[in-house]
Structure formats: C-alpha cells, structure tokens
Target: Transmembrane protein
Amino acid sequence: MSLDPWAALDARRQRRQWRHWPWGWTALGLSLAAWASVFMLAFLVLASVGMPGDGDHALRATRIPLLITLSIGALVTLGCLVATVLSLRLPQRPAAGIAALALLALLVACLLLPRLF
Model:
C-alpha cells in the first residue's frame, strides 16, 4: 500500500466504479427478462402436457429445462430487485428503476391474482 494520498484516492475511485453504472436500465432489462422467463415457463409447461393415458413421459422430458428456467427466472427477479434499489438510492436513472419495479409488481400480481380467488 502506498503512502501517497493521491494514489490512495485514485485506487478508491477505481473500486467504486460500479456506482456509475446505469442501474435503472439494468433493472428495466432484468424485469423484461423476468417476464420472458415466465412466458418460457408457460411454454414449457404447455409442451410437457401429453396425451391422456401416456403417463408422465412428456413431463419427465421437460423437467430439466423447467428447473433451469425457473432458477434463471428467480435469479433475474432477485437481480431486478437489487438493481432497482440501487437505481433509486444512487442518482442513476431512477425513473427506469421505478418502471422496472412497476413491471415486476405487475408480474407478481398477474401470477398471484388467480390464486386469491
């Protein structure tokens, strides 16, 4: 470690470079990816429905892609929440972060609303 204060300040600036990333646009992209993962899950579930009496061969065939898509969707949703919080806390496109949060809330409402009735 150098004793030069300017070198220490420069090193600190390099470490905090992530603060200037466009977190709002990242959150918006991740919320759109969450919607895409839900559509992909619906497609895979519909593809796994076989003919009556055939057993569960179609469901077994799509089990791995279903689990992969579900885990990617959960990670994308978590990333969207983190990026939204960062975009609201840091002055980096807070309007896009609010739009991403609204899209994510709409997604959760669309998924949970049929379960309430």
Q: What stands out?
A: The CA atoms of residues 23 and 87 lie 5 Å apart.
